[in-house]
Design a protein that fits this description.
By secondary structure, the protein is mainly α. The protein contains three helices and two strands, in the order βααβα.
């Protein structure tokens, strides 16, 4: 069997699927999502500059994760934890 060479040596990875449910996050969670996106963008820039096959494989994995976390940050719905606790307490009184 002939092995793939060049750009053909990297496989396309399946997309990471996000939950269809609302994406509620706290302000801290939103900061963590944005930080992860920045981290993945920085890594993408570093990997894109490389020509070796291992970097190209890592780039595909990184791009998949970047799309996932970017989407999670884009669809995030901020919630105030203090307000959530108050509404839970009111529901039990």
């Amino acid at each position: 069997m002939k092995e793939a060479d060049g750009d053909d040596a990297t496989e396309d990875l399946p997309a990471r699927t996000a939950s269809p449910h609302p994406n509620y996050v706290t302000p801290k969670g939103m900061c963590l999502l944005r930080e992860k996106v920045r981290e993945l963008q920085t890594l993408r820039n570093e990997l894109a500059a490389s020509e070796d096959i291992a970097s190209k494989q890592l780039l595909k994995s990184n791009d998949r994760d970047l799309r996932y976390f970017d989407e999670r940050a884009r669809t995030a719905m901020l919630v105030n934890p203090a307000t959530q606790v108050d509404s839970i307490r009111k529901g039990t009184e």
